[in-house]
Specification:
single chain, alpha+beta, Pseudouridine synthase, Archaeosine Trna-guanine Transglycosylase, Chain: A, domain 4, 3 domains, ten-stranded mixed β-sheet, five-stranded mixed β-sheet, elongated
């Protein structure tokens, strides 16, 4: 990839992340190509996983804290009868079983994983343990324990079963912080066997959907042609869940200087709103009684 951009880049690229590269590696590469001063992503995908990875540049990074709490949807394949050290294909096989559950048995146990459940994240995860990443400690052979956390599984269903290859496909919608590898491991264990994931794909990340994404190869072609700006979606694109209000030029200037507005002339709303002037995002507002207070100001 090659580029010579000099302007400030503000907006989104919703990437369909390929396998074999981490979220941060891919973000830094694209940030370099775009010469973007600020960059961030929503929801980490490690090298094994693919799918929806929202990349924010410039002023769009200010929206990350407001958009990263959304639920996630994943499709994954679980291979029974073999357990690995990482609960996916990247680890070594550390456990085997002769038992293959039936389709009926799998369907029967899935309801016990729906709702609020407790989950112990895998040792090959990015969780911090005494200032170090868990996967770093695991690679060193250090003994440590990870406390369980409460997560929510909103929907879990099996979409295909292939007894000949001991594999089943699933779709899960879950809260932020859910480890799908651990879910696969726990499903197999509940069926008195073992298993590991052979594929993991995120199809939705909060308001970001797989239909919003661009393939990395297509993005590379756009960047190579020097047309990277055309791949950037405006900062305002993903405000669909937030009330928007149009402000005057004078009100926009007040907000940019951190000043509050009276809520009287605007339609009633609760919670937060996005203030727009000429269809450009000026500020995120929070309503307190009859006052609109800017909690994030945008300078693009």
């Amino acid at each position: 990839m090659s580029s010579h951009y000099t302007e400030n880049i503000n907006g989104w690229i919703i990437l369909d992340k390929p396998q074999g590269v981490s979220s941060n590696q891919i973000l830094r590469k694209i940030q370099y190509e775009l010469r973007a001063k600020k960059a961030g992503h929503i929801g980490t995908l490690d090298p094994f996983a693919t799918g929806v990875l929202p990349l924010a540049f410039g002023e769009a990074t200010k929206l990350i804290p407001f958009l990263e709490e959304g639920n996630k949807t994943y499709e994954f394949t679980l291979k029974f009868k073999e357990g690995t050290s990482t609960d996916d294909t990247e680890g070594e096989i550390i456990k085997t079983s002769d038992y293959l559950p039936s389709e009926e048995e799998i369907d029967k146990i899935l309801p016990q994983f729906i709702g609020k459940i407790k989950q112990i994240p895998p040792k090959h995860s990015a969780i911090h343990i005494n200032g170090q990443r868990a996967y770093e400690l695991a690679r060193k052979g250090t003994e440590f324990e990870i406390p369980h956390r409460e997560i929510t599984i909103y929907e879990l269903k099996m979409t295909d079963y292939r007894p000949k290859t001991s594999e089943a496909d699933f779709c899960v919608t879950c809260s932020k912080g859910t480890y799908v590898r651990t879910l696969g491991h726990d499903i197999a264990e509940a069926l008195s066997t073992c298993g590991h994931l052979t594929s993991l794909r995120r199809t939705q990340n909060g308001i970001f959907k797989i239909s919003d994404t661009i393939l990395l190869e297509n993005l590379k072609n756009i960047l190579y042609k020097g047309q990277g700006v055309s791949a950037i979606l405006p900062v305002e694109t993903f405000l669909c869940d937030i009330t928007d209000i149009a402000v005057t030029e004078e009100e926009a200037q007040k907000l940019k200087h951190g000043q509050s507005l009276s809520a009287q002339r605007f339609q009633p709303f609760s919670g937060r709103a996005a203030a727009l002037y000429n269809h450009k995002l000026i500020a995120l507002l929070e309503k307190k009684e009859e006052t609109l207070i800017p909690i994030r100001v945008f300078n693009h």
